[in-house]
Amino acid sequence: MTTMFPPSTASEPDGNGGAESGITAVLSEAVPTVEASASTSSRLDATDVTCWFGKRKVLERCTLSMEPGQVTALIGPSGCGKSTFLRALNRMHELVPSAAIAGEIALDGVDIYSEAMSPTEVRSRIGMVFQKPNPFPAMSIADNVLSGLSLSGISNPDPDALVEQCLRRAGLWAEVADRLNEGGMSLSGGQQQRLCIARALAVHPDVLLMDEPCSALDPISTRVIERTIRELCEEITIVIVTHNMQQAQRVSDNCAFFLVESLREPGRIVEAGPTEQIFSNPSDPRTYDYVTGQFG
Amino acid sequence: MTMLTERPKGTETEQGDPQNLADSSSEAVAEQVPFRPRVLVSRDRKELMLSLSAGLTGSAVMCLVFDWAHPLTYAIWALLIFLTASYLLARDSQSPVVAADRLVTTLVWTSGGIAVSALAWMLVYVAVQGFKGLRLEFLTSDLSKVGPLDDGGGALHAIIGTLEQMLIASVISIPIAILTAVYLHEIKGRLSGIVRFVIDAMSGLPSIVAGLFIYTIWVLRGNGPSGLAAGLALAILMIPTVTRMAEEMLKTIDDGLRESALALGAPQWRSVLQVVLPTARSGLITASILGVARAVGETAPVLLTAFGSSSVNLNPFVGPQSDLPLFIYQLLRQPNENQIARAWTGALVLVLLVLVLFVLARVIGERGARVRGGSR
Asked: pLDDT confidence of B363, banded at 50, 70, 90?
């Protein structure tokens, strides 16, 4: 848990400042495909996103801007559609056979559900870390990190350097440097989750989605991952779903509060804004009740 | 009993002495009482012995009184008396719930025991019967120059036939079966319901029908009997078994792995090829082994497609061939002692061959797993 964040400084200048990322946004629009390796942070704008599973509407007219280089936390009680929203952001939602979606989600101005983007391209630009750590059991630690590349058929000229870089950024390098060829399942839960983060970073995503990444972990691993998130957000736009309100306060810049008003109602965004404001001075009484722990 | 009490006491005092000097006196007192695993005595054991002896003696008495001679009768009555006695004892000494629990436990143990002992009995019987004729000559010569009453000769032709036919059948059926399983469980295509139904129907197909099918469409149409024809018939039998097993194995793979692969931007075929199948590897090997096991003992389809032969035919594509089950079948029908003895030896060789193949497949699977996950 010491000294493992150096390389992030290398590409730091890209990520800061709204004006710069605006320019990169325009650039990446003009050249839509795999220039992603620069790891410039992108903005993600969801407009009127509505999701169904079969006939059941689980999410209605959610509009949210996820700012470049910032961490956006999605909070709310269980079953309010946070995870569905997150999965809609990189087209994982449509993997459920009966799922449907309306609205628009724009990555740097390009609608990810439009013909211009294929699901695989969307997912390689918008990475995801799941609730349950799930390294690929049939691969070694190093192969796990590189799996994103081999899975999308990209060859890397210097895999060793990439493995080291990604593991360092995920805060795992010091712990696994001497056993990169061991199986990924030999790690502890917290290490596995950081391996999954490293795996997601290796494809150089512009945005990283995290679905309760710490809910299966102990407090120490959680702290390491939170620190990793703060380090990463200088280069990557991060969206994180969390049940833990302290965590939302610790890691996020912006916050969106989801709520299901009553049974059979779809989930909606009650309030979104800077984290400080949501937690100290929310405009909606329901948000106030939730963040002060009066329900949920 | 004595072992249990003596050994820990000895180790305790050895370790305890140096500590005693340093530690307080209260610890020293505790040290004098030997700390050893408690011997747990339960009523169950006593009652088990009691009801067991009741069963054995009671059945013996009944056999004497009623003049039953068959050992199976004795065993069945012994079991019945044993079950009743243990149930009644437990009900009286403890409670009906305990008694029912014990009854079911005993039944489960008995069923397992019967299954295992039937297999063990059969294997031992085959080994004893077959061992007499198991000489090196049996593995290196065929029956082409052996007369009905001669000694010697062997099953080389049948062993070669079995190996070649199983190889052909595996090469054809295992890829098809695994791809079908991928279609059923990974792609979940629109036709998967129909495909699953057909696979189920195929798994109930009598093996002789598969043989007849190949006989009419292949052997009778100018191709003649061959090892290849037998391989085709056996492949038909293997496909449903391997498919269903492979599908079960794919079901055990966590969906999270597929999602992670897709979330990394992988197209589905790469996710299946690079993540799902390698993860399911040992399960798929098991599925293939079961398929081989299904086919390796088949006689009827081979009889109809390879016809059988008494000499070595190395070429599986032309001319009749034998295999071990067919070898056994044909020799057992002979009236001569030595022929029947050869058949038993053939059975033993078949069992050993299957064993070797299975161990080999397991070792290969394990080694692959160790290379991937092993430490340096």
From this structure: confident
Q: Could you tell me if B282 lies within 8 Å of chain A, comparing CB atoms?
A: no
For A258, phi then psi, to 5°, come to: -100, 145
Smallest Cβ distance to B263: which of A121, A127, A138?
A: A127
- Strand segments (E) across chain A: 44-53, 56-66, 71-75, 99-107, 110-111, 126-129, 207-211, 237-241, 254-260, 267-274
pTM for the model stands at 0.77
Count of other CB atoms within 10 angstroms of residue B294? 21
B166 by DSSP, 3-state: which? helix
In a mutagenesis test of the A interface, which of B186, B252, B260, B285 is the best target, namely the one with the most A β-carbons within 10 Å? B260
Q: What is the pLDDT of residue A169?
A: 87
Q: Which residues does residue B117 pair with via DSSP β-bridges, in sequence order?
A: none
Handedness of CA A187, A192, A197, A201 (dihedral sign): positive
Alpha-carbon gap: B39 to the closest alpha carbon of chain A (Å): 38
- The label of the residue with tokens 């700390």 reads B35
Query: Which of A151, A154, A201 is the mutation pick for testing B, counting most B CBs within 10 A?
Result: A151
**Nearest to B230, CA basis, from B211, B213, B217:** B211
Contact A151 B373 (CB under 8 A): no
Distance from CA of B72 to the nearest CA of A (A): 51
pLDDT tens readout for residues A58-101? 999 999 999 998 999 999 988 888 999 999 999 999 888 899 99
